[in-house]
Each structure stands twice: as structure tokens, then as C-alpha cells.
Design brief:
The chain is mostly beta strands. 12% of the residues lie in helices and 45% in strands. The protein has a 6-stranded mixed β-sheet with strand order 5-1-2-3-4-6. A hairpin with a 5-residue loop joins strand 2 and strand 3.
Length: 221
Amino acid sequence: MKRALSLLALPLLLGACVSTTPATAVHQPMSIRPEPRVAVVPTKGSIYNVASARPLFEDRRARFIGDVLTINIAETVQASKKGNTTAERSQSVTAGIPTVVGLPFKGLQGTALDASSGNKFSGKGENSSSNAFTGTITVTVIEVYPNGNLLVSGEKQIGLKEGEEFVRFSGVVNPNSITASNTVTSSQVADARIEYKANGFIDSAQVMGWLGKFFLSFMPF
């Protein structure tokens, strides 16, 4: 009896251990603390802090680990494919037996034979897709490559009444593409990974249960 109860409770325990945060494919980590630039001893009683200060005319665009950068997401993808194939072939043969005096099988003389064959093939296919994603997200520089390019990653969580929505972004940014307002368009980001996911009972209702997936994994039909 105890063994049966343990087996029944196992799925509940596994479900409780699973995180409600949707899985992600963006670069990790999605946030990082800035690295100390200069090892200084803080001066007691001083307003000016050398470790966090920047010169007055220094460029404010992101370029160090821990700096933030605003991404303007403007992705529009449209694709269409159309194919049409037609093939046709026909053949006809006509033969006859002439009437000749003295030949055997006189009953077959004057008979005409006709033979014809034909085949036709026609195929047609069409496919189209359209996707649009717009928005704004601020990400953090998590790595600076030797050539100066910045690997950025970030997440925005929006809590709703019955769940949460997650907007995630990561990619490689060329510092020359960053505007003076410290922004860059998503179309200028290399290896961009953009996600919009959610959790809650509405999204859970659209996902097949683990038991159904188990049976469908080996059923041949």
C-alpha cells in the first residue's frame, strides 16, 4: 500500500520541482554586475568617488561589462514560396495487315490495329508566412570580445493577474552601431535571439500533459 502511494505521489513531486519560468535559448547570464575598473581605497568623507566617476565629456554609450543598452526591437519577416509543375506525355501507334493474294490467315487480312498510351502529372504547392515583433528592452553587456564587440543579454518580466510574460533578448552588438542616445536597432544585432513567452493557466492549457507525451512517444499511430 505504501509503495502504491509513493508511486502516485511521484508525479506530484516532480511537477512541484519543475520551475514555472519558461526555458530560454538566449545567451546566459541575462544580467551581470559591472567589474571594478580601478582598485582604489575609498576616501572617508569625500563626495567624489573615483571608482564610479566618469569624466564630464566621456562617451556615455555602453562599452564595459555591466553597462546597459536599449534595444529597439523591430522585426518583420515575410516569406512566400510557390511552385507549379506539369508534365504530359502521349504516344500513338497504328498498324494494319494488307490484303495479299496467296497469304495464309486470309481472315486477318485488311485488319487495322491501333494502340495509344498517355500519362499526365500535375503538381502545385504554395506556402507563405508573416511575422512581426516590435518593442523595446534594455539589456546588459555581459562580455566584451577582443575586437570590441559587445555580447548583450537581458530579460523583461511583466506580471499579469493570472501569469507572467517574459521578453528576452541577446546578441552581439558592434559599438559603431550604437547611437548617441545609447540605443541600437535589433536588425543591427548579430546572432540575435528574441523570445516572447508566458506562463499561467492559459498557457498550461495549451500544452500536452506528460502522460500523453509518454504514450505518444512510442505509439505507432
